[in-house]
Write a structure and sequence with these properties.
With about 100 residues, the chain is mainly α. It contains three helices and two strands, in the order αββαα.
Length: about 100
């Protein structure tokens, strides 16, 4: 099996286990992002830093989850800067008013 196929299979299994844990109440979604601490309009998403540990997730808002997967964030999940936090909070506030 190729590496990409193995990764996809592991990712698929992790998502399946994670979703089952959410449905059964084994895992509970928090109300705020564990990265920027904003309470978003959308549901908090579970980010798997390691697919071999499907129940160990970082709870992130949609924006922080996208950043976690981008090449621009190689240091994730180190704490974001005060400036980034303020910018994201302003963005979330503007979005909430729409």
């Amino acid at each position: 099996m190729q590496l990409n196929a193995l990764h996809s299979e592991l990712q698929s299994q992790a998502k399946s286990i994670f979703n089952r844990a959410i449905r059964t109440g084994m895992l509970l979604r928090p109300k705020q992002c564990s990265k920027c601490f904003v309470i978003p309009n959308r549901t908090i998403e579970g980010h798997h830093p390691d697919y071999s540990k499907p129940l160990e997730v970082l709870w992130l808002c949609h924006r922080c989850h996208r950043i976690a997967h981008s090449a621009r964030s190689p240091r994730f999940p180190e704490p974001i800067t005060v400036r980034e936090k303020a910018a994201h909070k302003a963005w979330a506030t503007r979005r909430a008013k729409q």
